[in-house]
């Protein structure tokens, strides 16, 4: 009789931010077309480790399950990616799951991505409009610009680009690639451009664009294929021009 197929997972676990991490192995039954989330759900159904010991269910974060919310980011076989869109059939076993290292661990595979949201606030990644009355139709964008701006708008704040960037870490205040790219997105919009100078000022200070070391890892890992390095290059030009404008007071 053919032996039943199984999936071997090595999961880095941690009770909270201040506890030491440890590895726990799980062996679960194989089903075709499983993703990492369904494997984690299988463990949650019956939290028994590979030694046959009863343990606690592994904690992770997920919401949309269709690679839109960005919350299930984790390191899978050494690469930061989304657990929902990573299929077991395409991975080598044993499958190693670790939390992102750039962000503080809340528990097991769940991390606190507040850093990226704070950076979005710092760069004012929105268009401030008064919603108390009808402003009428906004200005139109040329179709060509709209098309590439749409690509930038696909960012789901998953944090994979920050994880891959060697200049984003606990000791640095670098805001990272995703918030920079959002500056380019909102500065491109005809209404958003009204606050262009504020956004450029935000990235010209500490932790801004000059902290980028041009390693180009970010663009390699972005699950949405966002042209992050192109955005950073464009912003380098914009901030240089802005510093001339500041100097000459124009
Ligand atoms: Fe994730 Fe890409 Fe946005 Fe970075 S730019 S947070 S990798 S979607």
Shape field: elongated
- Percent of residues in helices: 25-40%
Strand order of the largest sheet: 2-1-5-3-4
Distance between the termini: 81 Å
If you compute it from the alpha carbons, what radius of gyration comes out, rounded to the nearest whole angstrom?
A: 21 Å
Q: Could you give a quick summary of the protein structure above?
A:
With 250 residues, this protein is α+β, with helices and mostly antiparallel strands.
Description:
With 250 residues, this protein is an alpha+beta fold. The protein contains eight helices and seven strands. The protein has helices spanning 36-45, 114-122, 143-153, 160-164, 177-188, 196-204, 217-221, 228-248; strands at residues 6-13, 22-29, 73-76, 79-82, 95-98, 105-107, 110-111. Strand 1 and strand 2 form a beta hairpin. Helix 3 runs antiparallel to helix 5 (177-188) and helix 5 runs antiparallel to helix 6 (196-204). The mean pLDDT is 95. Bound molecules: iron/sulfur cluster. Iron/sulfur cluster is lined by residues 70, 155-161, 177-178, 181, 222-224, 226, 228. Its cofactor is [4Fe-4S] cluster; [2Fe-2S] cluster; [3Fe-4S] cluster. Keywords: 2Fe-2S, 3Fe-4S, 4Fe-4S, Iron, Iron-sulfur, Metal-binding, Oxidoreductase, Tricarboxylic acid cycle. This is succinate dehydrogenase. Residues 146-174 form the 4Fe-4S ferredoxin-type domain.
Task: Record keyword descriptors for this entry.
2 domains, 250 residues, elongated, Ubiquitin-like (UB roll), Fumarate Reductase Iron-sulfur Protein, Chain B, domain 2, two-stranded antiparallel sheet, single chain, alpha+beta, binds iron/sulfur cluster
């Amino acid at each position: 009789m053919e032996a039943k197929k199984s999936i071997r997972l090595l999961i880095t676990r941690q009770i909270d931010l201040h506890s030491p991490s440890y590895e726990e192995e799980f062996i679960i039954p194989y089903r075709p077309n499983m993703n990492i989330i369904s494997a984690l759900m299988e463990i949650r159904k019956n939290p028994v480790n590979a030694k046959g010991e009863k343990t606690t269910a592994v904690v992770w974060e997920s919401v949309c399950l269709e690679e839109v919310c960005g919350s299930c980011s984790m390191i899978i076989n050494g690469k930061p990616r989304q657990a929902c869109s990573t299929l077991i059939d395409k991975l080598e076993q044993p499958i190693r799951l670790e939390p992102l290292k750039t962000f503080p661990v809340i528990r097991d595979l769940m991390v606190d991505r507040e850093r990226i949201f704070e950076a979005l606030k710092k760069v004012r990644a929105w268009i401030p409009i008064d919603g108390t009355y009808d402003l009428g139709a906004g200005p139109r964008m040329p179709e060509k610009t709209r098309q590439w701006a749409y690509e930038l708008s696909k960012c789901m704040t998953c944090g994979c680009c920050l994880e891959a960037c060697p200049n984003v870490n606990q000791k640095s205040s670098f805001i990272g690639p995703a918030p920079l790219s959002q500056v380019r997105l909102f500065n491109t919009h005809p209404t958003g451009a009204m606050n262009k100078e504020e956004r450029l000022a935000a990235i010209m200070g500490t932790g801004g664009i000059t902290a980028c070391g041009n390693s180009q890892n970010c663009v390699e890992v972005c699950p949405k294929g966002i042209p992050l390095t192109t955005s950073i290059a464009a912003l380098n030009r914009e901030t240089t021009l802005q510093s001339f404008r500041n100097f000459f007071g124009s």
